[in-house]
Amino acid sequence: MKTFEKIMHFLVHNGFLFTVGVMCLVHVTLLVIFSVAGVTPLVEFNIVSVIVYVFSLLLCKYGHIMPVYVSIIAEVTMYTIVSTHYIGLRCGTYCFLFSIVPIIIYFGAFLFKGKQRWNIVLMLVINFTVFIVLYIRYISIRPIYDMTLATRLTLVIFSSFVMVFSTIFYNTIYIYSSELDMKNLELRNAKLSADAKEDVLTTLLNRRGFLPLVEPLMSEEKSAEFCVAFCDIDDFKRVNDSYGHDAGDEVLRHITTLMRKEMQGCDICRWGGEEIVILMKDCDLESAREKLEILRKNIETIPTVFYNKQIFVTITIGLERYMDSYNNPEEIIKVADERMYYGKQHGKNILVFEDIS
Q: What is the DSSP letter of 316?
């Protein structure tokens, strides 16, 4: 079951890459079929198609998704028109038009937002119009290349298989991703206490849940040794503007995962927006510095992977240790915040642990 979950997780987050790879294999197969059948124009067309998809694989790797989306739709539409022109309707290559319907809808819903999603409807209308025009135009015309029964049967079966596979596959990953989102939402809601001490997006503590953990450490007769780190994701607005708010949320979840891994035993709070506060109990300043430096470097070098995109971010950290002169949690947090702000003004992606005149 875990293997299935891993496979589905990979397919959901690498859907474009998988799609382009499959389309490339489809055209390699068609290239072989038409080479054996001696249909030179379609051999040449499929060679071009394979080149297009190889190039699209590179575009996917570097996160250029929209050109890939447009290329898939344009290439399949052109292939259907050209193949119908040369070998007619009876070979069933028009099925490829229907095979991209789930692709248009599934990836279009990700790429287009708001009123732009009417583009999906427009593309579906164009797709169906192309089919109708082809059917009317070639229903009674003898094809340029008359395929043998065996070749025609092979093409019909293969084209139908691609169409059915596409429909099943994209509906499956849509259902899986929807159920996964629902389960994650239910788990997050289940973990929230009645007085809302956790952040819904990251499941970190919020201020209400965090501050009561600091107060007892300051009120003990012999004050405990602890440090507070105030972290802020650098240029987080750029992430939202460049990749969308869904990507921004994924970045926050990714950084949360790294923090939980590196700062085990610490209490972590989403202070607000992209600000995170870490309570490091039983930790002196030097130990806190070492741990936070490791965390900062990991965040800098380990990207968030979001739909084939690698999103690199950095954080700026302000650190302060508790001293008897502090009367409440807000005071020590304020100092850590001011040091973080100083780091923001002097290069970002640094750890500031002392006041600099």
A: E
Helix, strand and coil percent figures for the chain, each rounded to 5 = 65, 10, 20
Q: Rounded to whole angstroms, how far apart are CA atoms 78 and 60? A: 22
The band of 224, judged by pLDDT with boundaries at 50, 70 and 90, is confident
Q: Which residues of 258-274 are buried (b: 16+ CB within 10 A; e: fewer)?
A: ebeebbeebbbbbbeeb
CA–CA separation, 281 and 278 (whole Å): 10
Single out the residue of 99, 215, 220, 222 nearest to residue 162, CA to CA.
99
| The pair of three-digit structure tokens given for residue 115, joined into one six-digit string | 């009123």
Cα–Cα distance measured from residue 136 to residue 159, given in angstroms and rounded to the nearest whole number: 20
What is the rounded CA–CA span in Å between residue 75 and residue 252? 37
Among 44, 148, 56, 162, residue whose Cα is nearest residue 101: 162
pTM comes to 0.55
